[in-house]
Amino acid sequence: MIDSAQALSGFAVGAIVGLTGVGGGSLMTPLLVLLFGIHPATAVGTDLLHAAITKAGGTYVHAKQGRVEWRIAYLLAAGSIPAAVLTLFGLHYFTNGIGGSKIITTTLGVALLLTAAALALRTHLRRLSKAQSPEVKRHPAYTILTGAVLGVLVSVSSVGAGSLGITALFFLYPQLKASRIVGSDLAHAVPLTLVAGLGHWLFGSVDMRLLLSLLTGSLPGIYLGSHFAGRVPETVLRFMLAAILVLVGSRLIAF
Known about the structure:
By secondary structure, the protein is mostly helical. Helix content is 79%, strand content 0%. It is built from eleven helices and no strands. The protein has helices at residues 4-20, 24-34, 40-64, 70-94, 101-120, 122-130, 140-157, 163-172, 178-202, 208-228, 234-253. 52% of the residues are buried.
């Protein structure tokens, strides 16, 4: 049975994602923990599968329009997926099941603060990245390492695949168009969130009823929000979202 309050929350978060392109895990997971009292591990696991489903549609659109650099997505996945698997098994082993609530909430809080900084400084970071010499060549190992860091963060907190991944790619590939960076990051996020989500499901930290309720609201929310994208000043939305993430991240660290 679908929970109307959870579906409404999914719709609200989906609309924000549609408007800004970010904010899915950054808002959904803390909302589930703080507002609905969902166990942190269950909130993370469920949101990961939710993200894999919703991001798949966005990846299809970007790929169809030729905005995905598949080599970058593969390099990121080469680091992130093994890191996610190792992290989940490590959590399961050392916390007697993926139940390390304090580990998860603290990591989630830190990830939210980092995401807030990435959002607030995005314009400055893009300007800085474009100022780099076009002759600069980035070794593939840097991209794989970036993927590994994202794999750890995402598997523990469900946060990082969006804003943090995009911010890192701006530095690694300064001459690449923003639309291709977003498309490549999104394409990488699908297998990462799917593998991490399935790992949580394997260890029993996914609520399928909650997942259905979130999808019922978020899919139309994303669709509606995407139609209003560009009509609301991006800078205003970005700083509002960053302010919310700072407050929520601080609250989770102290949770």
